[in-house]
Amino acid sequence: MKTKYFLFFLIALHCCLYTGTQAQVQLSVKTDVQQIQVxxxxxxxxxxxxxxxxxxxxxxxxxxTFNTLEITERGKIDTLRNGATVTLKQRLLITGFDxxxxxxxxxxxxxxxxxxxxxxxxxxxxxxxVQTVAVDTNQPFKGIKGVAVVESxxxxxxxxxxxxxxxxxIIAWVAVYFARNRKVAAxxxxxxxxxxxxxxxxxxxxxxxxxxxxxxxxxxxxxELSETVRQYIEHRxxxxxxxxxxxxxxxxxxxxxxxxxxRKSLKPLLQAADLAKFAKANPLPEExxxxxxxxxxxxxxxxPKEESVPDPxxx
Length: 315
Description:
Immunoglobulin-like; about 25% strand; 2 domains; about 35% helix; about 325 residues; three-stranded mixed sheet; 7 helices
């Protein structure tokens, strides 16, 4: 047994130091102790240096467990630079939960050289002695005590009760504060509603874009033109216009207090539409354009100063 401990003493004195000098790379490992008690940590230090102009280091893969030993903590790999030399360092915590002598094996590092070759570098392996907790057999055996019952009262929970009351008070104060000071969001404005005047102008523009008379659909052109204007008259002057003949509508306009002013502008438009629809007249292209312009002019000059939202009339 003395010889065994002497060997461990020599190993500890050597500090488990290993240095590899292959391919411009230096590798060394060391530990702080050579024997531990069950569950205690062993600090395992790894250092590798390389001249980056000649080689680069590929770090070893340390398994979580090996030979019943376990790595319980992995420090980050620190990098130190001194000119072209790069030094990498890492600290591992190793422990064992069974007593005995266990081997910490060699770990493989790779050196990738600038000439394309590769070299393998190995750390030293060494044994770690894991000991159990010392037991004094001269002391009398003591049995396991039963569960002790501890008397308690509400006063034991007084700090918790006070903390809860303070928390409830803070939450209530915050809720009341925000309830009193919250800003009511202004309602978002709805989509703008098209006025009846804008709707009529839009329909007349769309009629122009349809190019009906250019396609020899003269009757359809004047029918849609007349209906658009009559719908506008019904909304603008609050009077029936869709069911009246042109003469009846012009007669009503003559007696209408507001509409009488615009009768002269309306008359040539309605009469031109009647000729095209019923007399099957074939106006000239400039007359088609003039009829549409007469309709727009009538709508513009009769536009009210303050126009209300349009009636839901679908065209």
